[in-house]
Amino acid sequence: xxxxxxxxxxxxxxxxxxxxxxxxxxxxxxxxxxxxxxxxxxxxxxxxxxxxxxxxxxxxxxxxxxxxxxxxxxxxxxxxxxxxxxxxxxxxxxxxxxxxxxxxxxxxxxxxxxxxxxxxxxxxxxxxxxxxxxxxxxxxxxxxxxxxxxxxxxxxxxxxxxxxxxxxxxxxxxxxxxxxxxxxxxxxxxxxxxxxxxxxxxxxxxxxxxxxxxxxxxxxxxxxxxxxxxxxxxxxxxxxxxxxxxxxxxxxxxxxxxxxxxxxxxxxxxxxxxxxxxxxxxxxxxxxxxxxxxxxxxxxxxxxxxxxxxxxxxxxxxxxxxxx
Length: 324
Description:
By secondary structure, the chain is mainly beta. Helices cover 4% and strands 38% of the residues. The strands form four sheets. Strands 1, 2, 3, 4, 5, 6, 7, 8, 14 and 15 form a ten-stranded antiparallel beta sheet that branches. A two-stranded antiparallel ribbon has the order 9-13.
């Protein structure tokens, strides 16, 4: 087993004026010889979908045969910024922002999602180097706490009584989280070549923009006037189909396709090129403290989750792929 190699760079800049700390940093890593899952018994040629790919496998008496290979590579770039206010005058908060990008050609050995290779016997895994299945480009998190300056032990109404009972001891905590979505695969809506995993080809990188005209490879698709919703998250008119598998002759000359350029034309684009919906949540807590004896107190707490009632518009992962 070869050694797995990692390289990392982590410069940081930190500023810390009175009660506030700010930092910005960058992390960059590259990895080599990652463990990945390879099917060495993939068909050695593409065929018409009516043909059985079993007969063009290196070992036709066996089906898919997977083994762990240490040929994977990855890169990860991570820029983060943090702003923190230490607790003073009843207020504290922590805000963090992250931009990152992870790429790899290493499918997780223990059943990771992210989509399979197109065909490792016809397309080297380096040509399936694409966005990692867990890649999230942007994240923002905020956590703030504020304590009203009223009641025993505070600047105002610092004595027991009715006023302290009503107005004293109140505090609130607010949490906000937002992040962009993860990548998934868009599959063709035609009968593709036998012997490989085919994906749709992106013809317009702004695949979330509505409108447009259908691609000639899929003339019957409708171009939605609105996207980023549960009906049409992306615009199907931003994609084209690879060559139909039916264009390969069933027998004779040209019935076995193994030329690299032709294989790409039949199997389409890379995995994980389209990103799904993101995530936004606001939650808060309200606290009320009642002084009981000396430094002891009774606290009542109310937690409110998903204050804005945001809905999850998730694209299911795993064995599901969004077809256009």
